[in-house]
Amino acid sequence: MLSRFIKDPYQETISLLNAGEASLMLNQMDRGIAYLEQSIKISTTLADTVSLAYAYYYIGSTKYVQTTYFDKEKTLLKSLSFSKATQENQLVRHTYKALAEYYQNKGEPTKAFAYLNLYHQLDDTLFTDNARIKMLKQNTAYYLAKDKAFITQLKENVALKETTIRNQYILIAILVLFFVIIVLVFVYIKNLQYKYSLAEAKTELAKKELNFLKDQFNPHFLLNALTSLYKTSLMDKEKISEQIMQLADLLKGQIKLAQLDYIPIEEEINFIHKYINYKKGRIKRLTIDFKIEGNIPPIKIPSLIFLPLIENAIKYTLETEKPVVKINISIEQNYLCLRAINSFTKEQNKNSVHGTGNGLLNLRRRLVNLGQKFELNCFEQNNNMYIAILQIWY
């Protein structure tokens, strides 16, 4: 591990020794033994007996037990041999003491006493001043290197703890973010469900209102027809039966078409033809001009959408002396237009005989509920003519 950063093999040996000792002091036995084993290999190659002496001493003096690789007695004896050869006085004394403790624990008091006696007898005076100075320099250099290695080890441990704490914070942040995302997704789904329920409710309400508006056409048409039949019965009783049959046929067709939201434009026009023929046959003085411009396309339009305008035109023109209605359906490329023109009198305009406008209001609301693009305009002309224009895009 350390060899990746240190190029000098001698310096690497010292670093491995220091790292091994520091690891053993921190009770990191496996790691410390690994550093010392690596130091022994390099020191053996370099014939560095000092480093070998210290390496074997660190291994032999530790409480670590690993009989597979090391024998405590042999390891300490190797350290003693190398330390004597290099005159490492301090290390020799420590090794004597370690051997004395080993034999004492093993139950061999004679050997323990011998090594303990050697420990006490050994004195620095056995060495010359030059040897002692050399030893002090070596020890000083060794302990300085050891301190550096210990500091490096501490820095590595601090960096490891900082990395662990940083990873924990990152994990907590990820979990919080994940929780926030889940909450947002839950709120979003609930919001979609609420909007969907609201849209369904609006659609259901629109359908009910549309059915209500469609149901209003039948009573309106039937009321006008019954009023006309009543007047006919007072004037010409012989024709009443024929007109009742025609009315029944019209009502049957209207009921059938009113059940549908959209019908082919051809069926709408056929029904208008029947209605106009019924009115013209019943009221001789009524003049109705009905024209279709353009080819009838194979499209569908809202059912009975033209009937309210034509009914109103006929109803109010009958109040004049010469009732005239002009109905024109023009078919363009992408829209069709109905123009219903009827005569009216100034007196009608003053009395607002054109009614309350419920028929036109219902027509508008029905087209809006169907989502149909349309335009409806009604206005009067100076020549006593009333015009209603309905445009429908398809």
Q: What does the secondary structure layout of this molecule look like, with pairings?
A:
Layout: H1 9-25, H2 29-46, H3 49-61, H4 72-85, H5 89-106, H6 109-121, H7 129-235, H8 240-258, E1 262-264, H9 265-282, E2 287-293, E3 300-302, H10 307-317, E4 324-331, E5 335-343, H11 346-351, H12 358-369, E6 374-381, E7 385-393
Parallel strand pairs: 2-4
Antiparallel strand pairs: 1-3, 4-5, 5-7, 6-7
Describe the model.
The protein is α+β, with helices and mostly antiparallel strands. The protein folds into 2 domains: 2-127, Alpha Horseshoe (Serine Threonine Protein Phosphatase 5, Tetratricopeptide repeat); 201-393, Heat Shock Protein 90 (2-Layer Sandwich), CATH 3.30.565. Helix content is 68%, strand content 12%. The chain has a 5-stranded mixed β-sheet, covered by helices on one side. A hairpin with a 3-residue loop joins strand 6 and strand 7. The chain starts with 8 loop residues before the first helix and ends with a strand.
CATH superfamily of the largest domain: Histidine kinase-like ATPase, C-terminal domain
Low-pLDDT runs of 5+ residues are: 1-6, 351-355
What number of structural domains do the residues give? 2
Largest sheet: 5 strands, mixed
Radius of gyration from the alpha-carbon trace, in angstroms: 57 Å
Individual helix count: 12
Cα-to-Cα separation, first versus last residue:
81 Å
| Number of E-type strands | 7
* CATH architecture verdict of the largest domain: 2-Layer Sandwich
Give the strand order, joined by hyphens, for the main sheet: 2-4-5-7-6
Mean pLDDT: 80
| CATH topology assignment of the largest domain | Heat Shock Protein 90
Question: Helix amount, in percent?
Answer: 55-70%
Helix and strand run: HHHHHHHHEHEEHEEHHEE
Class derived from helix and strand content: alpha+beta
CATH class of the largest domain: Alpha Beta
Write down the overall geometry.
Answer: rod-shaped
Strand content: 5-15%
